[in-house]
Amino acid sequence: MRWLLGKQPAGTAFVTPYVVFLAAVFAYPLGFAVYMSFHDYFFAAPGAIVDRPFVGFENYVTVLSDPAVRRSFLNVGIFLLINVPLTVVLALLLATALNTAIRWRTFFRVSYYVPYVTASVALVGVWLFLFNENGLVNSILGPLAPDPSWLVNSKLAMPTIAVYVTWKQLGFFILLYLAALQNVSKDLYEAASMDGAGKAKSFWNVTVPGVRPATTLVVLLATVTGANLFTEPYLLTGGGGPDGASASPVLIMYQRGIEQGNPDIGAAIGVLLVIGVLLLALLQRRLLERES
Amino acid sequence: MKHKLTAALLGLGLAVTTAACGGGGGGGDADAAAKARGEITIWLSNNPEEVAWGKQMVAAWNAAHADQKVTAQEIPAGKSSEEVIGAAITAGNAPCLIFNTSPASVSQFQKQGGLVALDSFEDGKSYVEERSGKVAEQYRSTDGKYYQLPWKSNPVMIFYNKKAFAKAGLDPDKPELATYDQFLATARKVVAGKGAPFAIYPAPSNEFFQSWFDFYPLFAAESGGKQLVQDGKAQFASEEGKKVAAFWRTLYAEKLAAQEKYTGDSFVEGKAAMAIVGPWAIATYKDKVDWGVVPVPTSAGKPAAETYTFSDAKNVAMYSACKNRGTAWDVLKFATSQEQDGKFLTSTGQMPIRDGVAAAYPDYFAKNADYKVFADQAARTVEVPNVPNSITIWQTFRDAYSKSVIFGQQDPGEALDGAVEKVDQLASQS
């Protein structure tokens, strides 16, 4: 039994349920998705005799030659370029402000967190009220309002969604930064002050390096969340319009895999997305850790 | 976070796992199942009027068949009933009958091995054809069998708001909406006269089924009853299809129709002076809009008696997980008998797909003149084509339509031509 349970049988016993959970809930479905992506696969009734032959990379060729899929990956790239930097900058600045002794601090902290815990469906209504053709934003802008309007403008639809998602999720990332700020030694701020640093210099030379591990986490989480964008383009732009300008890979995956009954194609998109996110995360980690 | 993607993959994986594991009433020996009797479950749509009808139908059946009890429930909540049904087929827990099967999904459910051919019952084919007449032909699958019983239709027509028309200086009793030119002139007057911000407001979003409520009814009318795909070939890039596309493009280009999705009911809320919808909506409009109704327009203004439209039908199908198919078949016939169809019509205002529906229920139509026009229109409806990859075909069409007609990023004619090859290829697959 020793070869099976190792030197610490109790430890192995404690870990086993989680390993089984991971294998059943994450590893097996992921493996099956990869399997599906290499077969002519579709869902069938139990007992139905169906043929699901191995097709090699055929599904990947179909996916990569589909302009809608390529467009969706480009769209999510645009989304990440706007969403991730904006999230990091705003979350850090607001967390720093909320970490100082200001009046109504708790109220503001809760206010920023409310959108994060509110259902997207409810918040989308607010956003539509703001950004539709006759919405508040266009009323304020008057003749400067874009035509076509924000959510039906092929250049502005995805940036509008990116700003919406940033706003919705900001509260969560502010919390991460607030936690990280508690670990930045006050001595460092005092030392910086003694050296004549103002608030801006102190922020740049003490706060930013002090929360670098949190920044790594925020960048990673924002990237992974953004890459899995679905609800917002679906609800805000009615299925990825205009002309697919706001379609995300997960939205296309849903259309192809679930709506159209081609789970093999959906799985191939999913596998490509996983690979893309892993590469991006690796790149970000290298860059951020090298700087530290 | 990774969890959303993982969840999506997990969903795919779990469904497959369930399928692989089998069990759950795969149907067993089809011949034995076709004769088997006993308890069955049926699903109804979530429409309150339909649920009320379903409950009385089930109560009537159960009162006379204590040994073959029927249990009815609403389709479980989900993003769409088609997705819920697809998942139930894969999991092997679909009910015996679903009184809300979308014709567009039948080819997919059939491919999944989820449906029972009604022809497998001795009187299956004859019952379908006798009840529905020649309209039944549109619901026959490519293998020549019926996997769905044509149940009810909601012939799509143009509703208009009489007050909005009057406000814009138009005669609400004689609206000029028969030809494209008349329709456009009326639409311009409605908007210019501030009858409503938009003349008409079909959903401009990109879901595959939205074309059923803008392009398709007008295409059916213009083409004299053609389906989107016929004999394996796309029909939408024909001269008729291009005329329809050009008509809608004009409405969008002149902002007589909106490019933005509206979350409420634009017609009820006065955002649009017209709506393109079936009689199911009358209950919604009651006491809210003073409406009138006309057939969808054609380029030359065909008479109403010659105008086709989209059926917006929902049908009944029997699912292969059903063990007591003998009972299910009898329940299906009972629920679509002339008596039950009459009760359905009375409860919901939706048209049973029966040959000569107006003549079958003269008292009802005498008392409900509003519905008579829909009964007449029901004789000239076009269904979605029953072909492989039906939903993918509709999405392909919608993408081309959306890009060109709604958003004007391509010439509509070119866009339709561009979609033909892919649609033909999809329709030819098995």
From TrEMBL, chain A:
Chain ranges passing through the membrane: 12-36, 73-98, 110-130, 161-181, 202-224, 265-283
Protein's GO biological process: transmembrane transport
Assigned keywords, A-Z: Cell membrane, Membrane, Transmembrane, Transmembrane helix, Transport
The keyword Transport belongs to this UniProt entry's keyword annotation: yes
PROSITE patterns: ABC_TM1
Pfam hit, one: BPD_transp_1
Coiled coil: none
Location of this chain's protein in the cell: Cell membrane
Name recorded for this polypeptide: Carbohydrate ABC transporter membrane protein 1 (CUT1 family)
Automatic annotation (TrEMBL), chain B:
Signal peptide as annotated in the record: 1-22
Matches recorded under InterPro entries: SBP (IPR006059)
GO cellular component terms attached to this protein's record: ATP-binding cassette (ABC) transporter complex, substrate-binding subunit-containing
Family: Belongs to the bacterial solute-binding protein 1 family.
Keywords, comma-separated and alphabetical: Signal, Transport
Single GO molecular function: maltose binding
Identification of the protein by name: Carbohydrate ABC transporter substrate-binding protein (CUT1 family)
Keyword Signal: yes
Taxon lineage: Bacteria, Bacillati, Actinomycetota, Actinomycetes, Propionibacteriales
Source organism (scientific name): Kribbella amoyensis
Record GO biological process: maltodextrin transmembrane transport; maltose transport
Matches recorded under PROSITE patterns: PROKAR_LIPOPROTEIN
